[in-house]
Recover the amino acids of this structure.
């Protein structure tokens, strides 16, 4: 089932920064980000609704990652 | 978890409680051999985790090996309350002059352990309490301070026992208390304790229940008793619904969403929080509701885990609606549980607004949780509505039963 409550938008510019991609994978406590094997980052659809809204990804990539509460719109 | 009589007696033996000579057998030939070895008349007792063995024909007497073989064959074929025996305990038969009762358990109201003792053993203790209260003593004691045998003596003496009986019974009751503490029992009972013709006192039957959560602590003991890990020792075999719920809980280490017990009602319950599940289950019953299940949710389960349990409960054909209710939560997040139950409802093919009779989980992240519930049209209440009132509203939505 697709995510119902949370959407995570990652700015395409993030993909050019391998260190930042790695950091996003590391900071998320519920594995929303995964390395795609080419130094880039992908989001894991089935984990999106597990988002705890901790903002660690937003702090890691200010202005480049957005966490959208689908229930608030 | 409950122990078979033959196991409970092994625990008593470790604490030097006098017992009749006995042998556990698993077939009729073994019973004949045991009776021969013991010599004289014997009593044969079905080893099932159920009361009412005598009435059901699970206890028989035999004068010798031939009769013992016949009796054991009958007992081994006999199911009692749906349970088949794991064996037959063959014991020497003794002539009893007087029967006593002793038990140690927790008194939930007093919030202390209690020794219950009576000089009217061998019958239901509830009957003694109701019709012969002067023959029953209740002696509370501390679970924190070291236990003194003097407390056991007070419990026995309180019903008028004196002399040699007092001395001997005191040591048995004191041993029972030590078993109760040493093995994390919720109940340690000997009924009856028999004073024989020659004045000796022996434990004739025993019932012991250990706290299920203590199994790991006492793994070595259980191994010595030959209890396999897979043997859950519940009063009945788990239902498919209960097995599926246990799998949900085991599949994800985050939080708790399981410990489900099935009932025959139509209101599915997703309940928990610091004893809240027990309170809420009782509240539903008090409001005239018929729960389809008891369960426990808490410790901040993942969305997937809460969804899986919800889906499972919703999929039960008898479940008309579900009620999601907890005490005020701090470490469990309201929004995470809200996401889970809504997702579970939808995955099971139901509209959360129709299927969820009420959502009453106040606490951390409740603003987000309530936003989610509002979006999906779920009836929710905050902490200003008591758990009992929430249960009443859920039951009211079930309509005519």
């Amino acid at each position: 089932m697709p995510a119902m409550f949370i959407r995570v938008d990652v700015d395409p510019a993030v993909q050019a920064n391998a260190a930042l991609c790695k950091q996003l994978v590391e900071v998320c406590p519920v594995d929303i980000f995964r390395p795609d094997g080419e130094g880039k980052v992908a989001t894991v659809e089935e984990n999106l609704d597990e988002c705890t809204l901790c903002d660690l990804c937003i702090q890691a990539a200010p202005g480049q990652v957005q966490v959208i509460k689908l229930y608030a719109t | 978890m409950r122990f078979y009589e033959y196991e409970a007696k092994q625990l008593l033996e470790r604490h030097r409680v006098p017992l009749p000579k006995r042998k556990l057998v698993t077939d009729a030939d073994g019973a004949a051999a045991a009776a021969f070895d013991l010599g004289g008349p014997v009593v044969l007792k079905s080893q099932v985790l159920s009361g009412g063995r005598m009435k059901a024909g699970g206890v028989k007497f035999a004068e010798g090996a031939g009769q013992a073989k016949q009796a054991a064959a009958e007992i081994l074929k006999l199911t009692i309350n749906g349970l088949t025996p794991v064996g037959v305990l063959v014991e020497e038969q003794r002539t009893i002059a007087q029967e006593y009762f002793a038990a140690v358990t927790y008194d939930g109201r007093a919030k202390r352990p209690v020794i219950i003792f009576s000089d009217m053993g061998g019958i239901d203790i509830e009957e003694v309490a109701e019709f012969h209260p002067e023959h029953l003593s209740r002696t509370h004691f501390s679970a924190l301070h070291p236990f003194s045998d003097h407390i056991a003596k007070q419990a026995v003496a309180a019903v008028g026992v004196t002399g040699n009986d007092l001395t001997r019974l005191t040591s048995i009751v004191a041993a029972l208390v030590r078993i109760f503490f040493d093995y994390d029992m919720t109940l340690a009972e000997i009924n009856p304790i028999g004073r024989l013709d020659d004045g000796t006192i022996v434990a004739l039957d025993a019932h012991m229940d250990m706290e299920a959560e203590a199994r790991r602590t006492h793994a070595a003991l259980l191994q010595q008793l030959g209890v396999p890990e897979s043997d859950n020792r519940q009063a009945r075999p788990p239902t498919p619904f209960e097995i599926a719920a246990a799998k949900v809980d085991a599949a994800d280490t985050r939080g708790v969403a399981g410990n489900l017990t099935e009932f025959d009602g139509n209101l599915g319950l997703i309940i928990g929080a610091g004893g809240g599940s027990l309170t809420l289950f009782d509240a539903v019953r008090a409001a005239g509701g018929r729960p389809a299940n008891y369960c426990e949710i808490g410790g901040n389960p993942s969305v997937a885990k809460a969804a899986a349990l919800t889906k499972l409960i919703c999929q039960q054909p008898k479940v008309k609606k579900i009620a999601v209710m907890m005490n005020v939560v701090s470490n469990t997040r309201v929004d995470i549980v809200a996401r889970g139950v809504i997702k579970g409802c939808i995955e099971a093919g139901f509209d959360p607004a129709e299927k969820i009779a009420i959502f009453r989980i106040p606490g951390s992240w409740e603003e987000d949780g309530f936003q989610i519930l509002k979006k999906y049209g779920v009836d929710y209440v905050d902490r200003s509505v008591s758990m009992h009132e929430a249960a009443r509203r859920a039951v009211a939505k079930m309509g005519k039963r």
